[in-house]
Amino acid sequence: MAHTTASLGKTAHIVRELNNLFSNTTNIIQLEKIIPNLGLVQSFLSKLHCIINIYERQGHKIDQQTDCLEQLKEFKKIIEEIINRPTHDFRRLVAIGHYVSAIPQSYKLLLEFGQTLEEINEMIARKVENSLTENKKEIGTLIVLGIDKKIPNNIYFDTANPNDNGRKLKIIETYYGYFIEYILYIRESLDMMLNDNNYRLELKRLQSKLLETEPSDIEKYFVKIKSKMMNNPGYSTEILLEYLAENIRIHISISNNSIIYYKHFIEIFQVPLKAKCMESLSNLTFKLNTTPFLDLFKEVNKDNLVFKSIYDKGIQLYLSEYGIASNSQENVSNNRSSATAKDAYEQVKTKFKSLFSFISTDKTLLNQLRDLIIDENNSIGTHFILGDIYGLRIRNLDFSDEDTDVKYCFNYHFFKSLSYPKLDDINGSSEFNQLLFYIHTCADKDALKFTDSAHEAHLWKLKQHFSSVYNHDNSTSFNALIEFFKMLINIGTFKFRLDRVKLAISKLEKDDIIKIKATFLKDCLDLNTQGREIYLQLARSFSIDLIKHVIIDRTKIINKLREYNSNFNLVIKYRETLNASFDIETELNSGFSIPYYLSAILTADPNYNEEINGIFMSILFKVFTCSSENDKEVFLKNKKDIRQEFNKLHESVKRLIVYYDASGNGNYRDHYKQFRDTSIQHILDGFSEKNQDSLSERKECARAIIDNFINYNSKKISQILEINQDLKDEVLNIFNAFMKRKDSYNSEAWRKNTSKLRDQIDYLHAYHRYKEKDFDEWFKRLNPDQGYKIILENRETIKQDFLIHHEAFESLQIKYLQHNQTGALALIHDYLSKPTEKNGSLFIKIGTGQGKSLAIAETARRIIENNRNATNPKVFVITCYDHLAKRDHENYEKYYKHFDIRTMYCSSSSLTEEFCSKDMIYADLETYFSVLRKEGHNRLVNGTLIKLPDIKNTVLIMDEFDSLILDSDEIRQYVHNFDVHIENPNTKFDRQEDVEKLFDKEFIIECNKNFPKIFERWWKDLLEKKIKEDKNERQKTVQDSLGKTTNFATSLLNYLKKNKKAHFVHYYWDPLVFYSQFKQVIGFSGSIEEKHLSKFQQLFNNERSHYYDIPPFFGETNLKNNRTFSNDPGKVYENSQDFLYAIKNEIRGKYKEQPILIFADSWKKQNEDESDYEQIRKILLEAQGTFLKDRKIIEIQTEDAIAENIHKIGKFDSITLATRIIGRGADIKVDKSIKKGLHLLLTYYPPRENIFIQMLGRTARQDEKGSYSIIVRKDKKFVEVADVVVSPYNKIIHELTEYFYRSYTSPSNNSNVALKWVLFSELIRTMNSAEIKNYKLEQLQEFIKRNIL
């Protein structure tokens, strides 16, 4: 709505009247009663008059701000009413509150319009003078106001001389000083002052706007920031300088005024600088013109820190500019023209060219560059730019491994040789250039007694000699020669190496390369000055075995190996204590190079005696001795990583020794020494020469295996021995069973077996420490009904059965049944042996790691043995995950064979006919269903038969049954492709008749006849889906409760149009219907409570369920004390940045003491670019460059990732980011050395409470410690779980599907039958529940029989 302009002076007049009203003593008494902050209102009104004057002197008309005028009028009117009337109604009080809050906003608005930058400078000066500490926020606000509101139009006010540019620049220069000095106070004025990313971005924005808005003086700004840098730099100054170095305006200013800035740089570099400031300044030095740049370098090169910073930044700039100039796509994305990028690249290259040219004349500078400046961070870029400047002479050199280094290019005479033009243009330039380089990597480096001309003459003769011999046929021999000279860098003088190269070239045509190498190696060893270096260089190059070709005396070889590596000497001494020798012929192979080289740089630990250090080294030598060519490649390319793993393994072996020494301090010292020696022997035997693992496999598993050897509570072994010292042999039997590497084991299988050692020790301890009476008491507290009596009646039967079938249990490495396992099996036996008495289902609560898999196997075995003559399958075991089904089947396969029970694991490649030939099937729902879908599709398309198992007399065993039932609504129906006849390939499928033509016309008529207008309704449904999809209104993906994402199929009409094929749901399958079809259901779960069973009652025909809660074998847990809620009651952050910042802080606070498992939501919410999972992943990867640099980041989003990483999650150095897929059934073992256990970080609440409980269950397992914290974006709000019932609608469609596939027994395929069936399947699902109830199942089956089959 338009406003009319008010008369001149009205606003000021009303303000004056309001001031009078609020200054009257009588009025104040009345107003104090209703205006709590009266003083503040009075202050604003008094200031408002001054602000109006400032506002109008800028040429603005305050009365034109009619909204402000009207507000003031109304406010004055209400105040007068209040003063004149003693009673106040609610309406007036609300109105006063509104106007009181509006007055400061009007004041602020007028202030922003009226003030100048000059006045802001004055206000900042006053606030600094009055109280800097108290005025931080106000100063920060004024600084922001200056840039955002005052520059360029409100710098000063002077009607007589409004555009004095000199005055403006002086005011701005003063503002520059305040901006740089008090920039940190901007943080005080930000909404999220603790969010560092926001702060950095705000500083970047403000500085960019300040410098890019005229008028400005870039050089004056630089002087101000220079002064701050040299005197009192802080974090904010570092940020400003960092972004200043990227600003094009400063680049131009430096280029145009290079002499001035050169002097600034000289002055700055004379004082100590922070690393960040040094880096940013180094960036700016490359904007100088070439001559001032070189002059600057001449002045500052004696300071290694400055030299290195400028050099490092130059390399970064070169690589960056080279990449931009070379990549036209990046030119577009970076908004830089190809010419601009090329120019920037050439400028950096020119500066390096002049720099290298200057340095090449100065040996001291070359040495400084080579020895102090070049490192692994700049070496690749150095190689790149040297190649760019000097061409093939450098590009032909390979610095991809640690044996050579680009720094050797700066050996004085080699660097000088780059300027010898006579050495260019040669056939075999690659080989010749490499030989030149390796000749110059000599022991005397820059101390050659040659003049430059003599040096050039020697190389010219070498070139002639090389050219006379080299040809394509002997290039391989030349390359082998090069590799050997590369191997022995820095061995011998330049002349020695030059002469040997000449000699080797002469012999290439008549001697084999091994003989030439041996000759050169012998000459090197004859020098008698660098023996140790030569042996280590050979080892470093994976060639230690060449010694055998040079030294005939094998004893001498061993003595030299011992002399040059004191740790290998310890290995030999330890072997002597075991009466074992070192076999030169078999053990001194190329793979021996790895441990020999790595151990040579380790110092024997003075805290241990010679024997213990010998044990350390013996294990390390065994683990790291490999032999394949692939191992050579891995070693040469990854020495740094392998060295780190070598050192970590060394620490693991130390922990093993320390562990047994500490454990054996009491009465059982001899026992623990025997345990230690047994462990060591198993390690040495396991990594013996007969086990040909690759280096990658060994380094991946060795540390985990050794850690597993001590990942149990030694106190439990001491308690076992206290009960009976004769149990020592049982402990040793466990060690031998789970430490020994079997011939069939690869390293990963061995690791998996050793990971079971801890559980076995726990089982043995619990069996001997706790008695049956202990279990009985625990059980009775949890189960107050008649369950205990049942156990007493059947316990002996279970024990006798165990003794009778001990061989079967020994195949599972089970020597004892825990008391809780015996109790559970007694209850199961009673239930199965009294079928007429025990109607209803059986549900047992038993935790993971408590023998649940054994209970399931024993249940299945007893069912099958009781029903040998029944049809197959007799038992179905359904698990939550495919990998659990596979694992349990593999673990118990030998056990079942003992009882002649035919079992199978249902994989994606299984066949339905296998189901009918087995007694028992292990499967997860998704995989089982996929097999049915696959074979059903093959039946329709290819004519292959499908044989569905008859399960009406089968028993269903459900592992984690509550989750299987509650998650059943997340089982999806999937489409398959079918060929259809399309007459016109250009058909748009936007008419009903287009779709009708795909099917049998008579069949459509019959469908409509039996189910009125069913086809038309289906068509409308298809059309609606297409329209929504075209408008992008149709949901494309869905995520289940485990975090698995499924893509919805394209609408049928769009799919037909694009692919000329149709896709249909041909096999509809409902899990609840499937469960309800079994004769009997037995469920196991670690989280179910009896009170929740009522939710499942209707699913199992309202029969009474039998429920028992089995206590753990180690006694009742103290979960409340063991599992700590670290940030109770949790934190909720709606703002995304605050949410991520809190997560980062939580990780920072926990990672030093605990491994961390982070549950993150992988579902990308609407209008978000990334899911929480993706954002948290970025935080972790970024933190790996800082405080998490020594931590492994593990990601788990799939079942395969669980199986691959489950053993790593509980390690101290791991941080795991996972979806809730790991929230169920994952038995995470945390290293015993971690006192606080695993820390969970839950970053969202799942839909249902049972999933949340399962997520929490990943920590504080098996009566151990653990903790969790909750940092989420939304409050907890779980979906209420309704009673689980079988949908009559789903039941009919499920049973119709089964009926069709059981009845379609013709051995040939019939496309007409296939299309009729898929169409009928689609049509029937178009009906709603009320409609489908009008048809009996028999009627629908008859329709299928008559019209389809």
From TrEMBL:
Residues in DEAD/DEAH-box helicase domain copies: 837-976
Pfam families named in the record: DEAD
Organism superkingdom: Eukaryota
Signal peptide start-end: none
Gene Ontology biological process: intracellular protein transport; protein targeting
Gene Ontology molecular-function annotations: ATP binding; nucleic acid binding
The protein, known as: DEAD/DEAH-box helicase domain-containing protein
